Amino acid sequence: MDPAIASRGEIAYKQLSSTLRIYVKNNLISEITVDKIDREYRHLIGIPIVQEKFQTFKRSEIRLDHFWVDLITSCGKKDYENLWSFMKSIMILSHGNAAIERGFSVNKECLVDNQKEKSLIAQRTTYDTVNAKGRLENFIVTKDLIHAARNAHMWYKEELARENREKRDAEKMRGRRKRAARVLREFEARKRQILFAVSLTMQLKKLRESTIKSKWHRN
């Protein structure tokens, strides 16, 4: 159900197949329903616009269940009745804390001193991808993967340069904000001084006029 996995084709099919076998083993669904779910799932994730939505999915912006509800509804829920029924059962299935605790254990093994968050995420992605293949020897080293490994240092330098640029830009922005805040404070102080001077002038004028009128009445 993870859009990041669903966008990977064969890995998604293998995970779906594994889950469906568990359902069949526990007499939760029939073999006929399994075939329908598999067919509907393959058809759904083969739609180009669905793949685009997988790529733009962000956990921080939308819940996973809401994402799938909107996705299947927009593609026609009647065409994916078996898949939708299966997904609902997955969503309400309680897994306890076992998966979370396993994740913490894996993270603990991956952690090293002064490690950045992105590095940990990359290691977990690698671990989960290899684990999804079942065994390490089942993992196929493709040309794209070799190319990525060869260019890893270059990408690292580019990312480091980008972070440094962003840091410098952020420092410049903070400097501009500080200067703007200082100018604003000076302006407000000057404004208060002018208003005070105007108020004092008006009071003195009124006092002088009052004094003149008082002398005129006495005379």
Topology:
Elements: H1 3-6, H2 10-25, H3 31-45, H4 48-56, H5 64-75, H6 81-91, H7 98-110, H8 117-132, H9 143-150, H10 152-218
Helix pairs in contact: 2-3
Features:
HAT C-terminal dimerisation domain-containing protein, mainly alpha
Describe this structure in words.
This is HAT C-terminal dimerisation domain-containing protein. The mean pLDDT is 82. This protein has 219 residues and is mainly α. The longest helix is centred in the last third of the chain and has 67 residues. It contains 10 helices and no strands. It has a domain of 91 residues. The radius of gyration is 33 Å and the shape is elongated. α2 runs antiparallel to α3.
Number of strands: 0
Cα end-to-end separation? 100 Å
What is the helix tally? 10
Alpha carbon gyration radius: 33 Å
- Calculate the mean pLDDT score and round it: 82
Shape label: elongated
Strand content: under 5%
Structural class: mainly alpha
The SSE order reads HHHHHHHHHH
| Largest beta-sheet details | none
Organism: Lasius platythorax
Protein name: HAT C-terminal dimerisation domain-containing protein
Can you describe this structure in just a few lines?
By secondary structure, this protein is mostly helical. Helix content is 78%, strand content 0%.
